[in-house]
Amino acid sequence: MCGIVGVVTRPGDRAGLSLYDALLMIQHRGQDAAGIATCDGSRLYLQKDNGLVRDVFTHTQMASLVGSMGVAHCRYPTAGSSTCSEAQPFYVNSPYGLVLAHNGNLTNTRQLTEELFTNDLRHLNTNSDSEVLLNIFAHELAAVGKLKLTEDLVFSAVSQVHKRCHGAYAAVGMILGYGVVAFRDPKGIRPLIMGKRQDSGGFISYMVASESVALTANGYSVMRDVEPGECVIIDLAGNFHSRQCAENAKLHPCLFEYVYLARPDSFIDGVSVYKSRLRMGETLAAKILREWADVQFDVVIPIPDTSRTSALPIAHALNVKYREGFIKNRYIGRTFIMPGQQERRSSIRKKLSPIPLEFNKKTVLLVDDSIVRGNTSQQIVQMARDAGALKVYVASAAPPVRYPNVYGIDMPASYELIAHGRNERQIAREIGADGVIYQDLSDLEEAVRHGNPDIDVCEGSCFDGKYIAGNVTSDYLREIEMARNDSAKSQYQLPLPLAK
User: Fold this and answer.
1) Is 2 a catalytic residue?
2) Most buried of 94, 132, 329, 426, CB within 10 angstroms?
3) Which pTM value belongs to this model?
């Protein structure tokens, strides 16, 4: 996952300031690199580098980001190099001058890379599939062969992008001197939402972003989500255009957005992330009561931060005290999105410190949002025991993660997933717990769909191995496993283009 933002404001306003504020609100989606590109008339201004948003952009750099429209990105790498060259947005000068920021992962990148070189005569400077997506879009725009752009020509180009590109992608682009373009893959796997704000003079500014919180924090009222397969255009004059550009488009949002990735105060595809996590806690509590009725818990303790919302209804349903047993160091990033197992292992004990009196001589139920590789869970269970816990049980608000994720989440190698090939008893033994219990997939799906009945099927391939966008073969899974496992990341020698 990554965070993306696009904005068009009143002429004379500083779009860069709004983009900076929006990136701060979605910093949780990527802590590896950040970038902002703005346009003043037909000239591009671009700043990007490795690091957190607050570190990448100085006052001097922000002053140089002039113009009333722009796009921004915060990066989370699922593979390989974290060099500045991989930071987004990406830019190509032909045609028109194009900038693009992308969240997701293309699953036919190898094929597209070959087509770009042999057929489209385009050169790629990085290993990022986001640059591939940008060049596909650029080629299709160039194919229309018109000096003056119209919305019909842009929509036609995006339609061709949908035909050529497979996988998950939400993108915001900027066409210099024209406007901002945003589009979403036909399955709607990665989120994208838009909002507007009207000033005292009547001018309507527009913003699109990965999460609603980026809009509301900037004073934009939420309009709606960008539909799967849809393209929206906001030109420099503030005119808004939208069109469905894909055949058989249907919403299949990523379940992991609701489990872990998104902020609880966001709405994604009409669903409150916060309320969906409350419902996850309620259904998981019911399962605990059914299957662990003989266990007498003394305390329910969340593993901060994401699991707090689910832990509260569990404690209530079990009639057990809810306590904060771990103190979090706010200056350590999210360990799940760190680009290697070594970084995650070294960070967890710096990130969390137990409060011994909440564990001493107690039977503890730890609640986590999910268990992916298991190394973090193992260390946390050991921390609880070191703090004096008599017994330690672990409940996961998500089902077992058994399969690789190919849509932009860092789960490329099945053998790195603790639940792959193991049952709950074996997993408990691996992490040192007295017991482990997982959410049922049907309950997780219902917790999300309850907030939006129009959602038919969610994307949950890491739980059930069903790759909803298709074109994922066993050979492809083996390739990404070899290219993107933790061992490959440590060497930064990748035969495949990168994902976020």
Assistant:
1) yes
2) 132
3) 0.92
